[in-house]
Amino acid sequence: MLLNALELSHTIIESLDDKLAENIILLDISKAGSSIADYFVIASASSNRQSQALVETLLTDLRPQKIRPMHVEGEKDSGWQLIDFGNVIVHIFSPEQRAFYRLEDLWHQAQVVVRLQ
């Protein structure tokens, strides 16, 4: 069964929440003029180890559904890892990098679909 972008986003959020990612936000960027994706999932990891675990868990959890990323970027110690699933892009930040890049502010026109604190 193929998931649409919103279903995939919710599956990703569940996986991140299960691994205790913090401050998870789902932004609908399609209505904010984005041509790169429909949704951003943004989450924070409290450590480099957790950041890597979140990435590995997502890839493992989605494998049975035959969902593979188009691209994975960033190292666990960089403070920002990106997983590109096409219409859904996942950003996993350290709290410091998230505060520095402020993607939520950059995409302030995007609709917040989910916010888990």
Structure explained in plain terms:
With 117 residues, the chain is α+β, with helices and mostly antiparallel strands. 34% of the residues lie in helices and 28% in strands. A 6-stranded mixed beta sheet has the order 3-4-5-2-1-6.
How is this fold's topology laid out?
Layout: H1 5-18, E1 22-28, E2 39-44, H2 48-62, E3 71-73, E4 80-84, E5 88-93, H3 95-101, H4 103-106, E6 111-116
Parallel strand pairs: 2-5
Antiparallel strand pairs: 1-2, 1-6, 3-4, 4-5
Helix pairs in contact: 1-2
Number of strands: 6
Low-confidence stretches: none
User: How far is the N terminus from the C terminus?
Assistant: 30 Å
Number of domains: 1
Alpha plus pi helix count: 4
Features:
six-stranded mixed beta sheet; Beta Polymerase, domain 2; 117 residues; alpha+beta
Brief characterization of the structure:
With 117 residues, this protein is of the alpha+beta class.
